[in-house]
Amino acid sequence: MIPILETGPAFLGVVGLLAYVLGSVPFGIVMARLFGLGDLRKIGSGNIGATNVLRTGNKLAAFLTLVLDAGKGGIAVLVARALVGEDAAQVAGFAAFLGHCFPVFIGFKGGKGVATFLGTLLALAWPVGLAACATWAAVAAVTRISSLSALVAAALSPVWAIVLGQGTAALLLVLLAGLIFWRHAANISRLIAGTEPRIGRSTKD
């Protein structure tokens, strides 16, 4: 199902721009600096997300990064929905996700978007968000591979949306899942080769 557009394109553009700026805030780098962990882009994989923050050994910093990265997606959706409408909420969620992956503040080199994806999904359609989170947790518990958990959760999210009666979000979730797969291209190559590290182990790529 395609969501109904009720808001003018110019206004949706403004919503998208503001959500993109919010999504661009690199909370992983902020937390690393606040906790004196150094430049996150020179640690582990160089990624700015919570998984790489965890590689520093600081669990609190990693947890805060996870919450804040998820929160910026969720907040963008909730504010847009409250002030404008459901179509704006979807635009805001997509734009916040793009902001995290391609942040203007650090040269458009951002994270892989998993936490922001889940936060956006929880705010957009919480039953689908919970199903996606449960999918991630189940795959992680079995495989201990964060990237595989994210890929499976993203791939199944449009299915969960349709099954749980949130079909209007399915198209957005297909787009977000596609971007997550793209951002995980290197991880997919390592998964195929059997060299993808498990949770708790480090990687230089």
Strand proportion: under 5%
What share of the residues lie within helices? 55-70%
Shape, please? globular
| Topology, number of strands | 0
Question: How many helix segments?
Answer: 10
The helix/strand series, from N terminus to C terminus, equals HHHHHHHHHH
Rg, nearest Å: 16 Å
Tell me the number of structural domains.
1
Question: SS-based structural class?
Answer: mainly alpha
Question: Biggest β-sheet: count, sense, barrel?
Answer: none
The overall average pLDDT, rounded, is: 92
Oligomer: single chain
Q: How far apart are the first and last residues' alpha carbons, in Å?
A: 38 Å
Indicate the low-confidence ranges by residue numbers.
none
Note the main attributes of this structure.
0% strand; single chain; 205 residues; mainly alpha
List strands and helices in order, with pairings.
Layout: H1 9-23, H2 27-34, H3 50-54, H4 59-83, H5 86-101, H6 114-124, H7 126-143, H8 146-163, H9 170-183, H10 185-193
Helix pairs in contact: 1-4, 1-5, 2-4, 4-5, 4-6, 5-6, 6-7, 7-8, 8-9
How would you describe this structure to a colleague?
The protein is an all-alpha fold and 205 residues long. It has one domain (9-193). The protein is 68% helix and 0% strand. It has helices at 9-23, 27-34, 50-54, 59-83, 86-101, 114-124, 126-143, 146-163, 170-183, 185-193. The longest helix is centred in the middle third of the chain and has 25 residues, at 59-83. The model has no long low-confidence stretch (mean pLDDT 92).
